[in-house]
Amino acid sequence: MTIKTFGDLATSRKAWLAEVLQPWCRQAAQKDLRLAELEWVDVAGKVDPGKTLWFWAWGRFPALVHDEMSGIDETSPVTVTLTDGSQHTGYPDSRESTDGSLVLWGRASQPPHRNVLLGPFSIDEIASVQKAGPA
C-alpha cells in the first residue's frame, strides 16, 4: 500500500494496531508485556495501556473481558484453570489485577468459607478461563 494522504496513513496505522499489535498482546509473555508497557506511548501512541495493552492481553481469555468497557469483567464469576491443572472460581477484581496478574474474589475452601482474595495468577500460568456459576 502506498501512503500518499493522511487518510492513507491513518488507515495504515489502524491496520497495524489491529493486525500486528493486538494479536501480539494476546500471546505475549507477561515479562514482554511489562516491557512493552514501559514504552507503550512510543509503540502504540498516546493511549492508556490498561485499555489497550492489558485489555488485548487479557482478551486471549474472552470470558474474562468486557469489550464495551475495555477491561476485565467483574460482574460474572469465572473459573480459572492454571497450567498445573488447579482451578479457582471467583469474581475478577480489576483493581487488584495489575501487571499481567489476575486476582479473584472467591470463597475459602476451608471452613468458615469466607470471601478471600485468590491469586495473583500470572497470565503465563493461566490455561483457560470459563464463565462459572455463582462463586
Classified by CATH, the class of the largest domain is Mainly Beta
Sketch the topology as an H/E string, one letter per element.
HHHHEEEEEEE
Overall domain count:
2
Characterize the quaternary organization of these chains. single chain
Helix/strand-derived category reads: alpha+beta
- What helical percentage do the residues reach? 25-40%
Q: Just name the CATH architecture of the largest domain.
A: Roll
Q: How widely separated are the two ends?
A: 51 Å
Largest sheet: 5 strands, antiparallel
| Sheet with the most strands: spatial strand order | 6-5-4-3-7
Rg, Å, rounded: 17 Å
Tally of individual helices: 4
Any idea of the CATH topology of the largest domain? Answer: SH3 type barrels
* Count of β-strands: 7
Q: Summarize model confidence as the mean pLDDT.
A: 92
Contiguous low-pLDDT stretches (5 residues minimum) are none
